[in-house]
Amino acid sequence: MCNLVNKLIQNGRLSAQEYGELLANNSEELRREMAQAARAVAEEHFGNKIYTRGLIEVTNVCRNNCYYCGIRAGNSKVERFRLTKDQILACCRRGYDLDFRTFVLQGGEDPSYSADFIVDVVQDIRREFPDCAITLSMGEWGREDYERFYNAGANRYLLRHETHNAAHYGVLHPKKMTIENRLRCLNDLKEIGFQTGTGIMVGSPGQTIDHLVEDILYIEQFEPEMIGIGPFLPHHDTPFANEAKGSLEMTLLLISLFRLMFPKANIPSTTSMATIEPTGREQGILAGANVVMPNLSPKDLRAHYALYDNKVATNEEAAESRAKLQARMEQIGYELSAERGDAKR
Ligand code: 5AD
C-alpha cells in the first residue's frame, strides 16, 4: 500500500507537502486504497447506515453575485421565489412523514428574509418538531444574528468557505465578498455552539493543487463537524458558463481524505455528485461519505433553484422517492437511517 495512505490511516494527518503529493498522484489505484480505508473508518462509526437530511430550498433570491452560481443576483433570467413560513412548515411536515429527522433550510442571501423572519421560522419548526435537527444554510450574517438563530433552536449551520486562498476567492467572487468575512462567520458559528459545516467546490475555475492543500490545512485546523464538497459544474447564465466542470475523481479522493482525517464527521454525497454522473452518489458513499440530502422543496419550484446546469431533483434526489434511494443504497450494501445523526466530536 502507498506509504502516504498508510501514514494517513495511522495519523489522520499529513504534512502540506504530502497532501500535495497525494493529490498530484490521483491514480485509480490510489483512489481504491483511499476509498477502502475511508469506508472501513466510516463503518466503524456509522455501520452501514446513511443519514438522511431533507433539503428545503427556501429562497432563490440573492444579493450576492458569485461568478459560479446560477442564482446570483446578476442572473436576470431566474424566476425568483421565496417560501412563506407556512410553506416551509408544510415541507417539514411532509419530510417528517417521510422519516426525515433533519431539516436543512438553504437559501440565497435574500434581503427580504430578515433575521426576525428566520428566527420566527426556526422557533416554529423547533416547537412542532422537538426531536428534529434544524440546519441552516443561509449565508453570511453578523454574530448576533447567528446567536439569535441558535437560541431559536437551530443546531447546525452549513457555510462552505469555497476556497481558502484569498486570490482564488477573488477569482470566484466579486470584490465586496472576502474570505476574511467568510472565516469570521465560521468562527462565530463554531463558538456559538453550532455543529458547523464547511467545504469547497472541487475544480472551480483557477483552482490549483496548492489551493486544495490550503483548503485541507484550513479544514484540518478548523475541525468542522460537517464537510460538504462537490465538483464545480457550470451554469449557462453565469460568467463561468464556458468553464470546464470539476473532476469527479478528485472529489472522490478528497472525500476519502477527509473521512480519514475526520472519522466521525458528517460528510454528504452531494447533489452535484449525483448530477455529474448517474452513479456519483453511490461512488461518494463508497469513498467514505455517510450522508445524503434529498430534496424536500415544493416540486414546482425545484427547477428555479438551479445553482448549476442539469441539477438533479427528481428520482433518487427527491425526498418523496425515499424508497428508490433506499433500494439504491441496498445495492451497494448500505441502508438509510431514520436517526437524527448528530456529529460526534
Ligand atoms: N457548481 C457546483 N457547486 C455549486 N455551488 C454553487 N454554485 C455551484 C456550481 N456552479 C455550491 C457552493 C455553495 C453550495 C450551496 O452550492 O459550494 O456553497
Task: Give the helices and strands, then pairings.
Blueprint: H1 3-11, H2 16-24, H3 28-46, E1 49-52, E2 54-59, H4 85-97, E3 102-107, H5 115-128, E4 133-137, H6 143-152, E5 156-158, H7 166-172, H8 179-192, E6 195-202, H9 209-222, E7 226-231, H10 248-261, H11 271-276, H12 280-286, E8 291-292, H13 322-331, E9 335-337
Helix pairs in contact: 2-9, 3-10, 4-5, 5-6, 6-8
The structure holds 5'-deoxyadenosine (5AD).
Give a description of the structure.
- With 345 residues, the chain is α/β, with parallel strands linked by helices.
- It has a single domain (37-335), classed as Alpha-Beta Barrel (TIM Barrel).
- Helices cover 42% and strands 12% of the residues.
- It has helices at 3-11, 16-24, 28-46, 85-97, 115-128, 143-152, 166-172, 179-192, 209-222, 248-261, 271-276, 280-286, 322-331; strands at residues 49-52, 54-59, 102-107, 133-137, 156-158, 195-202, 226-231, 291-292, 335-337.
- A six-stranded parallel β-sheet has the order 2-3-4-5-6-7. A three-stranded parallel β-sheet has the order 8-1-9, with helices on one face.
- Helix 5 (115-128) links the parallel strand 3 and strand 4 (133-137).
- Helix 3 crosses helix 10 (248-261) and helix 5 (115-128) packs parallel to helix 6.
- The longest helix is centred in the N-terminal third of the chain and has 19 residues, at 28-46.
- The mean pLDDT is 97.
- 5'-deoxyadenosine binds next to loops.
